[in-house]
Amino acid sequence: xxxxxxxxxxxxxxxxxxxxxxxxxxxxxxxxxxxxxxxxxxxxxxxxxxxxxxxxxxxxxxxxxxxxxxxxxxxxxxxxxxxxxxxxxxxxxxxxxxxxxxxxxxxxxxxxxxxxxxxxxxxxxxxxxxxxxxxxxxxxxxxxxxxxxxxxxxxxxxxxxxxxxxxxxxxxxxxxxxxxxxxxxxxxxxxxxxxxxxxxxxxxxxxxxxxxxxxxxxxxxxxxxxxxxxxxxxxxxxxxxxxxxxxxxxxxxxxxxxxxxxxxxxxxxxxxxxxxxxxxxxxxxxxxxxxxxxxxxxxxxxxxxxxxxxxxxxxxxxxxxxxxxxxxxxxxxxx
Length: 335
What we know:
CATH superfamily of the largest domain: P-loop containing nucleotide triphosphate hydrolases
CATH class of the largest domain: Alpha Beta
Shape: elongated
Number of domains: 2
CATH topology of the largest domain: Rossmann fold
Number of strands: 14
Radius of gyration: 23 Å
Order of helices and strands: EEEHEEHEHHHEHEHEEHEHEEHEHH
Helix content: 25-40%
CATH architecture of the largest domain: 3-Layer(aba) Sandwich
C-alpha cells in the first residue's frame, strides 16, 4: 500500500533545519550547480530529483560538507556552512553503495561509530541496540554483517546514519535493489524517522512514484538549476491538464500520429520523449471546454484509432502524477 504524505503532520511555523541559498559550483568551464535554493523543516521529507547530470550529487556533497561551494550559503540547524565540523555532528548520511565490514556484527558496527561521536562504550552499545530495534534488526544484533541480506544492510546503514541523533538525514537511493515489499517497508521506516525523531530527511531517488507517495516536498533540478519546488501536491498541480498519452505498437506510431492529427479536438500529436510507443496528444485549450478528463472526447479519439485498426496498448491522462511534471520541466535533458 502506498504511503501517503500528509502536509498537516509536520509543523510549518518553525524555522527550517536546512536552508540553502544560491549555491553554485563549477568544474572548470562547466557549471554543475547554478543557484540552488530551498528549505527543509523538521519532520518533513524532501524528495531530491533530477536526470543524470542535473547536479544532484554535487548538491548533496556540498550540503554534507564533502565539497565547498564556489558561491552561496547554507545553514543546518542554525549552524553556518563556515563551520563544517559542527555541521557533520548534526547530520546523518546514507550514501549510495556504501561499504560495510562483513566480519563485524551489527551491534559492534554501531557501537564503534557511537564512540566516534563521543559516547562511552556502554552508552554507544545501548544506543546501538535501540537503533537496531528502530530499524527492525534487534534479532540480528550479534550476527555478522556478512550474513545480512541487501535489505538488512540498507537498514543497518540507516541506523548508522542515526547514531548521532541528526537533525537532517540524507538518504541516497535507500531502496535501490529491494523488492516491492522491501521498498515499502523501508519507506515506512524513513517516514517513521522523520515523524518520531522530528528530523528533516532529504531523499534522493530515481523512482518518482516513491517520491510522490512518501515525500512532503520536492526539488527538481535540471542542468544545475531548480526547475520546480514546493510541496508534492503543489508541484503536481503545475502539470498540464489538457494532454493525454496513448501507447501503440512502435511500428504503428507514425500512422497513429497521422490519424490523431486529423481528429477533432486535437491540437497536436507527437511521439512522447523517452517513452517508446507512446504518443503525446495535446487537446485544444481546456478554456474552450476540452480537457483530458472528457470521456466523450477520449472515446472519439480511441474510435478513430480503432477504425484504422491500430492496436491501443495504453491510454492515460497526463497531469495527475509527479512523472508528468518531471518530464515537462526536464524536457531539455531528455531530448
